[in-house]
Amino acid sequence: MKLNPFVQAGIGLTFALLWSCPTLAAMTDTRNYGLEVKVTGQSEDDSDLGTKSGGDVNGVGLDLRPWVYGESGNWSAYAMGQAVTATDIIETDTLQSDTQGAQSSGNNGRQSKKNYLAMREFWIGYSGLTPYPGEQLKLGRQRLRNDDGQWRDTNIEALNWTFDTTLLRANVGVAERFSEYRTDLTELAPKDKDRLHVFGDIATQWTPGQWVGLRAHHTHDDGKLDFPTPGEAPDSLAKKQNGDLSWLGVEANSDAYSLKNRNTVNYWASLTGMSGNRDTVNPLNADGSRPIDASKNGDVSGWATDLGVRLRLDPQWQVGAAYARASADYEQNGLQSNRSNYTGTRSRVHRFGEAFRSDMNNMQSATLFGSWMLQDDYDASLVYHKFWRVDGNKPVGNNGINAVENNYDDVTGALLSSTSLPLVDGKTDLGQEVDLVVTKYFKQGLLPAGLSQSIDEPSALVRFRGGVFKPGDAYGKQVDSYMHRAFVDVIWRF
């Protein structure tokens, strides 16, 4: 199997980071290594809502993740690789986006394969800039994550400084994606090409257990736009937009995402504004000729909010409700997963449905949930969502639905082309969903404390996570009535 240059560079840089620095070469004081073995079974049906043949997923994948971690004084280093083999194209990683590898064109650089190798992370860290124990500067491909998963939750090349104490938390960093570091995905998604992220956040505990904070993010995208050529088929990997966007948000919460929290009532609230400008490529004219203006420039702005409350009925049971809304032109910064512990359990659940998986764009949702935990051995969450469009005449952002509109030849009946299914004008009902996530945990406390951001699960486990989505009127009457996406994960550590 031939590795692409970025994967080769990642592997080489990993060993260089671990052993070439004189300080790190002596990391015999504390050296940790291991292997995470993950087996994932996936069942997915009708993500296209019955608008095309095939597309269902039923299979099992084996995901092996060897890792090594070392410390010496204020220095640390970490690397994690990945080897995946599967009977189908299985989503073994919750950080995988629904559009990753979904494009099909003459360029197959974004075609996911059943088997691949990858470098998930490789970084060095330094914790000597301040005397506080919760401070660290990291350089390399690393996991960036914030509690609600709506600003950052991804593996990306970054320089990131974290400050985490009892009364103050802060992050400042820059990031840019240069490669997926996977043998099957040799091309970046168009939105990631030449896109620089600058971010920062700060939060303080103004009274015991009550936090308020400020978050900011800026993206500078000066990637070269790809203009269509008459007579040539469009390339799905062509870059159609660039520009600069900025986000500024305020938040308040009762430490609601912390598992150590035993409050009777927990809450979270955030409000974010977005503004900037964007250049967008104009399509060819209806007759196939070039448009007069190759692109158009315009200002964009929007806002979003996420509100939630959770009530603890007793040490094991909790119930809650949440509401989120994003204006028609709002979009997230591209580093989000929207996964968090908002139900009050150790299991991270998608804020907008395990099946629907919507981004915050021209969408509002109302959520009811209940959760259960039995010590450190079991947890479960049952969630109901209802989704609407904010503007019934504009599209919504990325989600887990891949419905298409087919164009057939009138004479032969042959399929000529397929495009994304447009939503019905004036209809705002996107649908509703029920999710269930159940987990059994086994071995505890096997990992170094310094890997809390890098490894999702601190113990071995068996987990079921799934959702059933019923589309609303906005998808029209010709689509199927239900779609589902379900997983069984088995994780063990050696």
Account of the protein in words:
By secondary structure, this protein is mostly beta strands. 4% of the residues lie in helices and 49% in strands. The chain is built from two helices and 22 strands. It has an 18-stranded antiparallel beta barrel. The protein has a two-stranded antiparallel sheet with strand order 14-15.
Q: Indicate the multimeric state.
A: single chain
The rounded distance between the terminal residues' Cα atoms is 26 Å
Shape: globular
H/E topology pattern: HHEEEEEEEEEEEEEEEEEEEEEE
Largest sheet: 18 strands, antiparallel, barrel
Poorly predicted sequence stretches spanning 5 or more consecutive residues: 9-31, 101-106
Structural class per helix/strand content?
mainly beta
What percent of residues are in strands? over 45%
Total strands: 22
**Rg result:** 23 Å
Mean pLDDT over all positions: 87
How many DSSP H or I helices? 2
Helix content: under 10%
Defining key terms:
494 residues, 22 strands, two-stranded antiparallel sheet, 4% helix, mainly beta
Describe the structure concisely for a colleague.
With 494 residues, the protein is mostly beta strands.
Topology at a glance:
Elements (H helix, E strand, L loop, with lengths): L4 H15 L2 H4 L4 E16 L11 E16 L2 E12 L29 E11 L8 E11 L7 E12 L3 E9 L18 E13 L2 E12 L19 E13 L11 E17 L13 E18 L4 E10 L12 E2 L8 E2 L12 E12 L3 E12 L14 E5 L6 E6 L8 E13 L19 E11 L11 E11 L1
